[in-house]
């Protein structure tokens, strides 16, 4: 199992702050995003609107990073400020 946390615009678009996914073997962040996007139109819109940043166990990661069963994955849009 992997605990996926959604923040900011993603949380608002999807209407949920967390999701538990069954994961039997390690996958890449890119594969995780593909699995989420395959869940349907709201997911495709949420992930297609802008870049999505990722942290695995509270450490920033890229799309090639490995997600393992038991990990916590946070997904969030880039922060802007001024």
Description:
It is a single chain. The chain is of the alpha+beta class. It has one domain (2-76): Ubiquitin-like (UB roll) (Roll), CATH 3.10.20.30. It has three helices and seven strands. The strands form two sheets. The chain has a five-stranded mixed β-sheet. It has a two-stranded antiparallel ribbon with strand order 3-6. It is globular. The mean pLDDT is 92.
Give the structure's gist in a few sentences.
The chain is of the alpha+beta class and 82 residues long.
Series of secondary-structure elements, N-terminal to C-terminal? EHEEHHEEEE
- Number of alpha- plus pi-helical segments: 3
CATH fold node name: Ubiquitin-like (UB roll)
The proportion of strand residues reads 25-35%
Strand order of the biggest β-sheet? 2-1-7-4-5
- Strand runs, count: 7
Topology overview:
Layout: E1 2-6, H1 9-14, E2 18-21, E3 27-28, H2 29-37, H3 41-48, E4 53-56, E5 59-61, E6 66-67, E7 72-76
Parallel strand pairs: 1-7
Antiparallel strand pairs: 1-2, 3-6, 4-5, 4-7
